[in-house]
Design brief:
The complex is a heterodimer of chains A (about 350) and B (about 425).
Chain A lengths: L1 H17 L8 H13 L2 H12 L49 H24 L8 H9 L32 E10 L6 H7 L3 E3 L6 E6 L4 E6 L3 E7 L2 H17 L7 E13 L6 H7 L4 E3 L7 E5 L4 E5 L4 E7 L2 H19 L2
Helix pairs in contact in A: 1-2, 3-4, 4-5, 5-9
Chain B lengths: L1 E2 L12 E4 L6 E4 L5 E4 L11 H12 L3 H15 L2 H4 L3 H18 L6 H8 L3 H15 L8 H9 L15 H17 L8 H16 L3 H5 L2 H8 L6 H17 L18 H6 L1 H22 L40 H10 L25 H4 L22 H5 L5 H19 L1
Antiparallel strand pairs in B: 1-2, 2-3, 3-4
Classes of the chains: A alpha+beta (about 350), B mainly alpha (about 425).
Amino acid sequence: MQLSSFTWKLLKILDQVDQVRCGVMDESALERYFDDSIANDSAFILGEELGLQSPAPLLHDSTPSVQNSSFLSTKSERSSELGDELDLSFLPDDLSTQEEPSQDDTAGSQTSVLDMSQDSGIGVNFTSQDSAAAEPRQEASVSGLRTIVSPFCPMTPMTPMTPMTPVTERSGIIPQLQNIVSTVNLGCPLDLKFIALQARNAEYNPKRFAAVIMRIREPRTTALIFSSGKMVCTGAKSEEQSRLAARKYARVVQKLGFPARFLDFKIQNMVASCDVCFPIRLEGLVLTHQQFSSYEPELFPGLIYRMVKPRIVLLIFVSGKVVLTGAKERAEIYEAFENIYPILKGFRKQ
Amino acid sequence: MFRSGLTCPGCGSSNIVDDDLYSQAQLVCTDCGSVVSEGTLADDPVGGSGVQRLKALCQILRVNAEIEDQSEKYYKEAYQHESFINVTLQKKEILAGCCLLVSCRMRNWPITMGTISCLLDADFNVVGATYKEMMKILNIKAPIVNVTDVMEAHSQEYKMSSYPEELAENSKDLTRRAVALVELAADSWIVTGRKPIPIMMAAVYLGWQSLKPNQHRLRMSLEKFCQLAQVKKCRAAMTRIAEMKEMLCKLGKELPWLRGAVTPDNVIPQVDDILQNRHALLRRAMRAHEDTLQAECQTSSADPPTEQTAPSQITEHVDQTPSASSVEQCEPNPERAEPPADKEANLHTAPEQSDAQESPDPAPNWGKRVLFAPPCVVHPKKRRAAQPELQDVNGDEEISDSEIDSYLRTPREVRDFALTQKMLSDEGKS
């Protein structure tokens, strides 16, 4: 039977993949998982729905060959494989090279990691199987920034969304990034007056603030450019956008005649928000989590929760809206939210 | 008395003493004579020293000795910290007030920040900022203020006892009634996240009206009431009153012996009955609400769910609290459309939905589908529509020259701009 041969093939591959430190699953669980998937029809249409729900559009290079970075980037091929026969060619020949994705690919793989977890997030809602089991994949994906995530990438339509080991119920909610703050060093001193004069999109008021405030339309961001050559870029909605925006500002400065470079680009802060869609008893939460929470309704309507691991500050409001800030990496936000969600849910039932 | 931990900015010596000889409190370096800190000129009739002010506050609020001692301790500790050592006298007073505030909280005798800022005649925001800074410096955690705990102290401020019978109310009855109303408000999400004083004011006002719902009381506006009670009215209390009336109507509707609609205008005379039977009324209201939801689910079962094939397991939306909101999932039937609340949750949290997909028609927010929900959910602020976001950016794209050029001024523009600037600055000078 086609399915069981696939099972065996994948199991062998997974032996190798295990070395890549997914760390969450074991073989017997895998077999259980596949047995479950065989029993359940919905797995087959999942791939289709995944294609529909894919949040990120296809990457420009959508050829099935995966020579580059992580095999997660082959998410794009998912749609080509919908409902078709199983094609394992997506798996790279040498899996051990996937261990440490290169620096440049980190953003890419992180996106892919993220996208996958997004998929699984959405998938949870579709499957009639135990959604509770969807946890470990997201966990795996968010906890290990540099490791390849679950081998059960949604690349084949056969891949059911339910993972192997049932864990605590996952939220299925993904926080949306709202703001990214990054810094970069242009590497040369700048004449702010000159920049303010020559650039249309710049404002400079030395009495008020010692930097030029520059704005570009796409990505819609604002930059503070200092005379030392250092620059802060704010307002982007993703790490890549922030980087692109910073490069554009650098290019503007370059065009004005300065020998600007692009050194030490670093994301300093990420802010995200989401909505759990149920009201939260903040008074109760501050009682049970006193050491992390601060709730002063006279001063601020939200509860300020300072999570220790990861080191994120969450603003939790009675409406169920949550703001997460203080992250340097996207995964920290997701991890923080997955940590807080069961706590908030626990509150709901009380 | 030597002040430890301070160094003179003039000579670096640590021999600083309190100099209370004159009307102003001063810290003076005994080695070089420079004044390390001093209060502002004594406008304050009560006294210069912060500790004196603290003692005065304690007396006004009639706190016990424990609280007084604790607050003195905190004050002395915070006062020596660099953030507070050189501030104005007023700030020191505010600091004293904050120390008192935190001590009261810790000893289970809570007062509000509003009270403190009233007593000190200080800006509420400054008090708040000072409080936060002080908490950070002292590194302590104080339990939150429960509105019902503060209610008693607050309602005693309302001087309603010395009026003719139609208007008079003794403090005890008033407090009891107001506390019951506040508890009910807390259950229906009116209290969480809000400032306590407007809620308490609304509770006292409605409580007062409901104790003797005669024409005099019912016709009296909040403004007039506050004048009578010799209390300063706060504007937010008006919205709280409206919210509480709405909540009372939802419960009052379930009173079986009533005929006709229960509206915010005629609900006050029913408050007595509502409070007496609040648990039963709550149960009835929740059941009635569930029935309506069920009926709606039935009618919407024809709705083909395009995004989902199976019921979501995200949340059951069942609130077990005997009090507040409850949205129950439509009765188990896997093919039916899910409660819009779930659908909406899925839609809204599906990340970066590209426009290519089935467009999420903004589903009615979950607040409108439950019996009680926080008002900020039921009446959400209008948000600016999200900009169509840049998709599929990898950060390393080519940047077109034309785009960058669009951000640069042409030489002519530069000339014009420089000229205009010069003209404007000359104008300014002349």
